[in-house]
Fold these 3 entries.
Entry 1:
Amino acid sequence: MRYREAHVTTNEIWRYIGSERSDLADTWESLTPERWDSASWCEGWSVRDVAGHLVASAEQTPGHFFAEFAGARFRFNVFAERGAQRCAAAGPSELIRRLRARTTTRNHPPGPVNAMLGEVVVHGDDFRRPLGLSHQTPEAALLVVADSWKKSNLLIGSKRRIAGLRLAATDSTWNHGDGPEVSGPLQSLILAMTGRTQVLDDRSGDGVALLAKRP
């Protein structure tokens, strides 16, 4: 059965973002100093660095984005690294406070609001999963992210990565594409779409090995 996208309003997406940010802050409050310094799934970044990146993004505005991006000579990785490190230096308590302050605001850098939701979902798992922590984002929010990224190559190249494959969620009606299948929980499929190969070990289907080879 072909999945049909549901219409979701911008107001609904912002509510999902606020809820996920609140859950992130709750998780951060539970972390020991050792866990803050643990490695995340973002190469070269600790849990603290991922937190810094999420706060930097939550506080970003178009004006500041363009000024900082130009200061990084339009190199996105340099721009993101600088923002993450700057905010991470504030320390856990301040990171928690600043993220909680952004659970009801709607400022964001240039780009679709869907991308802001995807960022908080994926980066949340970038530090939770290596720490053995679980979090289930509501299905409605995951559908917004999956539907957005299946047709976008912005920054993460998800459309290119899943081309020629059929992705099918085992805990949702969501599916996309034709070809060798990759099946699993929707939240894990979203992570796989972004290149997080760590989640492919517990996925199934004859498309898993093909997806694992794609950068």
Entry 2:
Amino acid sequence: MRRREFVTLLGGAAAAWPLAARAQQAEKVPTIGFLGTTTASAWGPWTAAFVQRLRELGWIEGHNLAIEYRWADGRTGRFAEIAAEFVRLKVDVIVAGGSAAVEAKQATSVIPIVVVLGDPIATGLVASLARPGGNVTGLSNQQTDLHGKRLELLREVLPSLRRLAIMANVDYPEAVLEMREVQAISKTLSLEVATVEIRRAEDIAPVFEALKGRADALYVITDALVSTNRIRINTFALAARLPTMHGVRDYVEAGGLMSYGASYSDLFRRSGDYVDKILRGAKPGDIPVVQPTKFDLVINLTTAKALGLTIPESFLLRADEVIE
């Protein structure tokens, strides 16, 4: 090969390298780290709502967007591990709910985090709802603001309610806060309260043994541990003839008596709007945290019949969903 031909060939190859590098960079798509506190099946409707909203906004998974899903299976110790993994992967946004959001915040102060959480101010994630500051924004599900309404609904179905048991995972700070609030409101309603504390799945069966003859109904406080074991909890409650009040529709679908709370499908759908804004350049600290606009009252008539309860027609007419 002549020297001139070699130089020409070498020059062409050198010019091609930047083009190849640019092509590789162009192929890189934004990545979301999705931290699910329980299981993929439990969060299925919420994940679907989130992905659907992203599609509507032009973000299509596998095309111009990648989503790394990780599931903690209700094990709180996994939250920090998954958050640390997302930091190593250098994802562009982390989406997390409940106490997993706190772990995500502890893992990074740089990667934007979109949360679905009861009280992001009390948990120290944001400075204020209007101006979150830092790298966290999202939606407050007002879990600790709805317990009074839940007790009111429970008494409507159980006019003879005198003794209330409250179940909570006491390793989850928001659950402890709600437990205290429910206790305080129960006292104003002249209800006797028995609090039952759990920290792991193995605590559930003994709790129901201890509750025998001590309660007329069970108020179940939402968290990852409870969500993962919702069928088990409802099965024990039904066997103990205890009507249950929940904060999430899925628990009623799993055999609970009723639920009242923010629609999680709607919250996760709206979290897609937050991710969209961040991926288009908005700073999370400048995006206000919003509160829910859609609340659902759901009742399971099959469970009501198994408990020997007759639900007033006026109550059923007000329900957003009746499971039969």
Entry 3:
Amino acid sequence: MFGVGQPVPRKEDPRLVTGNGRFTDDIHVEGELHLAVFRSPYAHGRIESLDTSAARAARDVLRVYTAADLSQLGGLPCRAVLKDRAGNDCFIPHRPVLAEDSVHFCGQAVAAVVARSRQAARDAAELIDLQVAELPVVVDLEEATGPDAPVLHAQHGSNECIHFENGDEQAFARACADADHLVEVRVINNRVAPSPLEPRACLGHYSDGRYTLYNPSQGAVAQQAVLAKAVLKVPLEQVRVVSPDTGGGFGIRGEVQPEAVLCLVAARDLNAPVKWLGDRSEMFLSDSHGRDNLTTGWLALDAQGRIVGMKIATLANLGAYCSAVGPFVPTMAGGRVTGTVYKIPALYHSVRCLFTNTMPVAAYRGAGRPESCYIMERLIEAAALELGISSIELRRRNFITPQDMPYQNHSGVTIYSGEFAATLELALENAQWSGFPSRKVRSKAAGKLRGIGVGYYIESSGGGPQEEARVTLNPDGSADVVVGTFSHGQGHATTYSQILSQTLGIDFDRINIIQGDTDQVHFGGGTGGSRSSQMGGIAVKQAGEAVALHGKPIAAELLQSDPERVRFDAGVYRVDDTGAEVTLTDVVRAAAEMGGEALAQTHRYDRGAGYTFPNGAHVAEVEIDPDTGEIAVVAYTAVDDCGRVINPLLASGQVHGGVVQGLGQALLEFARYDDYGQLLTGSFMDYAIPRASQVPDVDVSFHEVLDPNNELGVKGIGEGGACGAPPALVNAVLDALRDRGVMAVDMPLTSEKVWRLLHENEAQGA
């Protein structure tokens, strides 16, 4: 009942829901000091003066830091080192911990104050006087490409970080020349603020020449490497990172931000622990944002509705600097699935990554793949209208089929499994697609507009190709599992315990998952890119198998048999021809008695090249009140192929979370700057995330098509909802609005926007 495939409730939950979680701000060290950050109120300018004298003189203030105090440090690095088609490196500007000679976005850290209390530090930060010679500001993507656009990084000479290209533009042109139909769609992928439940926090400590950082993350090992090698410039063993319970990640927890560095440096200088806790408004200003693309797509088709070519041209906003993965997200990450689940003979993909005076953009749930799926599904709908056929039929005609696999797409990666047509049919059946016309009639009688839409997605998952686990079996029957992934809400303590319980036949409740402390976790890729089950899960399984194999000679000695005759299964070593057997616990105890140590093995799993490709069909049904523009999502159906489902309960929760974040982007969320680079959405009064009343009951089911390249057959599930929901919802809204002549919309589809579209169209019709 606790093995793979069972809907086991999360073993983490009793501790968390009873208030016994241990988050970063719950950690207190005697004598801790507090840090506050002074941030630039200007979006762009040269620093003329920075007067910190009043702050230094304020009560209980111990230290004020400016860039001049950090000259020995490195900058915050970007690991996305890309080349353009001509072999030129992308431009990665130096990103200082504190602004040096100039500021490039509103909210950039300029100075830091350390005081005896949080309030004293914040009050003193208010006393800092920054004088700036303001420079012209650019926040709009199209303006950033213009010849007269303000240039953020003068040494580079333009706002373009890199022009990424893939495919053959001339082949697309030839396909267009022979095509019977050509459709064009322009879409906005709106900027979003990730907004994890737990605001960022960190606690720095320094003792005996060693730094310790307590910090929410998506993997402590990666942060340790960045801090030690790139920023502090000390040997790796001199930095310890501990990530306790973490309240959400969504990509941004993979970044090292200035506050973590400042706490460590201050702890060293003042010989005392230093804590920083951000408030929600600070998070809107200083957490990396997500998405923010402007994309135009062209789809060429023959008379029978077969796709013959596609071109995608994107302007991608990086913000003022490159985040850790900034230029990688819209190029390589999104580019791996351009064209998604359809056969496209000729494809050209262009992405111009641009700097603007805004908060840097990083990975956000899906990281490039939702953007690719969104433009593809919008093009499919537009093409179906052009051809006068249903978009369902158009998809069927162009799907990659199981017979086509293994299928190498235009990015050069290979899709090995998937039954896209069958997954779509199951979603249509579950959504009662055929009954929609009668539901539409009922809505019309009630004065409402009703629409239905599909979003078919595929994403590439797996992240880094290696992961490590160490399994230790203790004489008392318990097991300790150290793993390099990091659970920040996914439920790894449950799923990994299921995998190991099935592998070794040991008690599910006696398995202890250890993560997030670099003193115990020495290798690991963390959690991101839906990689944990297929990387950490397999590492745990194989480490468990290695432990069982390691115990076989001991079992053979206990059984008075040759090791070759001993077989292990379900927690028992057996000699089949004699019927003799001993349990794994017996072997563990014997090992402890023989050598005084627990039975343990470390295994590093390497999947090799390639990725897995989770995919799915999502169907949204909406009802719109034309008098107010309000959209009600009245039904939502998701059928996902994530390979083997380790735990259906937890997998469904991942779908729910992704769908809600996709719904937020589609209907509500927009991190908006004005023309002067001021953030207009700096609180939840201005930035809308979905409320419970706006979220429908999501009907989740799975179509398990196992991945043939890993022994669990898993693919990943964490990001599918964020990929499928935006196109499904926007297509549904467009389906409803076409009854009133509205043919184009852009996210987010707020009630005001919908109302204006309806009434502007009525006015034009009149």
